[in-house]
C-alpha cells in the first residue's frame, strides 16, 4: 500500500474510534463518572433514586431499574400546593425590577427539614414580591456539590445582566437550606446599602472562623461576575491552596484580594445571619431568620423546633413590624458610623498630600483603614478608632496648613451631623459627608 494511502486509512480509523468513544461517553451521566451517594430532586418536585459510581457497592444494581424509577418519580408529580412550593424556579418566570432575589439549592438525599426551611424563604419572597431561584440539580460536581452555589450565582448574574437595566433584580441573597425565616414581615431593603455606598457589591457576615458564606447579599453587577469567576477557579488554578471550608474559604480569599476588598462590607451577623447554637438562639423576637451552621446531628431537632414555631401559634410572637425591631436604630447608627469613618479616612488622605502627619497619626490611620476593610461589622469599635484619629489630627493642628485646619473643622461638623443626632430619630442621614478638599 502506498504510504499516503496508509496514512489516510489510519486517520479515518482514528476518527471513527474517537467518535465511538465520545458517543459511548455521552451516554454516561456525570453521576456515573463521579460518586455521589445522594439522589437528586427533579424539576417536578420529586426525588430520583440515588445513582452512585459503578465502583461503589451500592452502584452495582441494574441501571435500567434506576431509569424506570426516575421516570416513575417524574410521572407521580402532583399539582398540590406542597409540590408547587418546592417546584424549581425559573429566572424567566419571575417578576422583574425586584430589589432582591432569593437564591439557594436543594437536591440530594430527601430531607424534609431542608425542604420546609426553603419553603419559609419562598413564602417570604412571594409576600414581598421577590423572585426566588432554587437549584434542584447537582450541575457542577467536579469537586464537591457545594461549588454549585457559585456556579448558580454566576448563571443568575449573567441572566440578570443581559436584561435592560430597569428590569434587572438589583441584588441576590444567598441562603443555605439550614436557615429559616422567622420574621417574614421584614423587607430585605433594610439590609441594603444606601445610595452613597454604590461601590459596595457584597454584604457579608463573619463569625469566629471568619466569613460565613451561608447567608450573604451579592449585587447584580459585572464586578460580581469577575469576583465569582476568580473564586470558583481557585481549585483549578491553585490546587494546593488550602480550602478548609471549600467555597467559603475561596470567597473569603477573593474578598481579601486587592481588587475586590473595598467593595465588600461586613454587617453585624446578628442582623440577617443569626445563629442557633447548641444551647440557645442568639437573637431575639423580631429578628429576620435563624441559621444553624456547625450543629452536626443536633441540627435536626433544632430545625424541627424552629419549623414548628414558624408554622404554629408562636409565630405571632416572632413576627414583628420593622418599627418594633432592632433594625431602624441599629442600621442608622451603622451606616452613619461608616460615613464618618470614610470621611476621616478621606481627610487623612488629604492631609497626607498636604503635609506629613506624625508617625503615630499615620499608624492610627492605617489601623482604622484595616478595621474598616475587614471588620466593619464591629462598628462600635470602628467608631472609637475613627474618633481617636480625628482627635489626633485636632491635637496636631499646629502641624497642618491653614487650609487643612479649615477642612478639619468641617470634618468636626460632619461628625456632629452623623453621630450626634437623637437616638429616637430613626431616619438615617441621606447622602455622604462632604467637605471642601482643594486640589
Structure description:
Helix 5 (112-128) links the parallel strand 1 and strand 2 (132-135). The chain is globular. It has 16 helices and eight strands. The chain folds into three domains: 30-79, no CATH class; 88-321, Spore Coat Polysaccharide Biosynthesis Protein SpsA, Chain A; 327-419, no CATH class. The N and C termini lie far apart (83 Å). It is an alpha/beta fold. The protein has helices at 3-26, 30-33, 63-75, 81-85, 112-128, 148-161, 222-232, 234-237, 247-255, 269-272, 299-310, 315-318, 327-354, 359-374, 379-395, 402-419, and strands spanning 100-105, 132-135, 171-175, 179-181, 202-207, 210-219, 264-266, 289-291. This is Galactosyl transferase GMA12/MNN10 family protein. InterPro entries: Glyco_trans_34, Nucleotide-diphossugar_trans.
How would you describe this structure in keywords?
439 residues; alpha/beta; Spore Coat Polysaccharide Biosynthesis Protein SpsA, Chain A; 3 domains; 46% helix; globular
Q: Return the CATH class of the largest domain.
A: Alpha Beta
User: Portion of residues in helices?
Assistant: 40-55%
Counting structural domains, the number is 3
**Poorly predicted runs of 5 or more residues:** 13-96, 422-430
Helix-strand pattern, N to C?
A: HHHHEHEHEEEEHHHEHEHHHHHH
Structural class label: alpha/beta
CATH architecture of the largest domain: Alpha-Beta Complex
Count of β-strands: 8
Largest sheet: 6 strands, mixed
Report how far the terminal alpha carbons are from each other. 83 Å
Individual helix count: 16
If you compute it from the alpha carbons, what radius of gyration comes out, rounded to the nearest whole angstrom? 27 Å
Q: What percent of residues are in strands?
A: 5-15%
Mean pLDDT: 78
Q: Enumerate the strands of the largest sheet in spatial order, edge to edge or round the barrel.
A: 2-1-3-6-5-7
| Shape label | globular
Subunit organisation of the chains: single chain
CATH topology of the largest domain: Spore Coat Polysaccharide Biosynthesis Protein SpsA, Chain A
Family: Belongs to the glycosyltransferase 34 family.
Pfam families: Glyco_transf_34
Protein name: Galactosyl transferase GMA12/MNN10 family protein
Organism: Exophiala sideris
Amino acid at each position: 500500500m502506498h504510504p499516503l494511502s496508509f496514512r489516510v486509512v489510519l486517520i479515518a480509523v482514528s476518527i471513527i474510534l474517537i467518535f465511538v468513544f465520545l458517543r459511548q461517553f455521552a451516554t454516561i451521566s456525570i453521576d456515573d463518572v463521579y460518586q455521589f451517594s445522594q439522589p437528586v430532586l427533579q424539576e417536578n418536585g420529586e426525588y430520583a433514586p440515588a445513582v452512585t459510581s459503578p465502583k461503589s457497592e451500592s452502584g452495582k444494581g441494574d441501571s435500567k431499574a434506576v431509569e424506570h424509577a426516575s421516570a416513575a418519580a417524574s410521572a407521580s408529580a402532583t399539582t398540590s400546593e406542597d409540590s408547587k412550593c418546592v417546584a424549581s424556579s425559573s429566572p424567566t418566570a419571575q417578576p422583574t425590577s425586584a430589589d432582591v432575589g432569593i437564591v439557594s439549592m436543594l437536591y440530594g438525599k430527601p430531607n424534609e427539614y431542608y425542604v420546609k426551611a426553603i419553603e419559609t424563604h419562598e413564602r417570604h419572597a412571594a409576600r414581598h414580591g421577590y423572585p426566588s431561584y432554587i437549584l434542584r440539580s447537582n450541575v457542577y460536581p467536579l469537586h464537591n456539590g457545594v461549588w454549585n452555589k457559585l456556579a448558580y450565582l454566576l448563571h443568575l448574574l449573567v441572566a440578570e445582566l443581559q436584561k435592560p437595566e430597569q428590569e434587572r433584580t438589583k441584588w441576590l441573597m444567598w441562603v443555605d437550606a439550614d436557615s429559616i425565616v422567622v420574621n417574614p414581615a421584614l423587607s430585605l431593603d433594610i439590609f441594603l446599602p444606601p445610595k452613597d455606598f454604590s461601590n459596595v457589591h457584597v454584604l457579608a457576615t463573619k463569625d469566629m472562623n471568619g466569613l460565613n458564606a451561608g447567608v450573604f447579599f451579592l449585587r447584580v453587577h459585572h464586578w460580581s461576575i469577575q469576583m465569582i469567576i476568580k473564586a470558583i477557579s481557585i481549585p483549578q488554578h491553585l490546587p494546593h491552596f488550602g480550602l478548609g471550608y471549600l467555597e467559603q474559604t475561596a470567597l473569603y480569599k477573593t474578598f481579601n484580594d486587592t481588587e475586590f476588598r473595598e467593595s465588600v462590607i461586613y454587617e453585624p451577623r446578628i442582623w440577617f445571619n443569626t445563629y442557633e447554637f447548641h444551647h440557645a438562639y442568639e437573637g431575639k423576637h423580631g429578628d429576620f431568620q435563624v441559621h444553624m451552621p456547625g450543629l452536626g446531628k443536633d441540627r435536626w431537632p433544632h430545625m424541627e423546633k424552629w419549623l414548628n414555631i414558624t408554622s404554629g401559634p408562636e409565630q405571632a410572637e416572632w413576627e414583628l413590624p420593622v418599627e418594633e425591631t432592632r433594625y431602624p436604630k441599629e442600621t442608622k447608627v451603622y451606616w452613619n458610623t461608616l460615613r464618618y469613618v470614610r470621611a476621616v479616612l478621606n481627610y487623612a488622605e488629604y492631609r497626607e498630600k498636604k503635609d506629613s502627619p506624625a508617625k503615630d497619626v499615620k499608624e492610627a490611620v492605617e489601623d482604622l483603614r484595616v478595621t474598616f476593610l475587614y471588620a466593619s461589622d464591629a462598628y462600635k469599635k470602628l467608631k472609637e478608632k475613627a474618633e481617636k484619629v480625628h482627635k489626633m489630627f485636632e491635637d496636631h493642628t499646629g502641624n497642618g496648613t491653614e487650609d487643612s485646619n479649615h477642612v478639619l473643622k468641617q470634618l468636626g461638623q460632619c461628625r456632629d451631623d452623623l453621630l450626634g443626632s437623637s437616638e429616637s430619630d430613626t431616619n438615617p442621614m441621606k447622602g455622604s459627608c462632604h467637605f471642601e478638599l482643594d486640589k
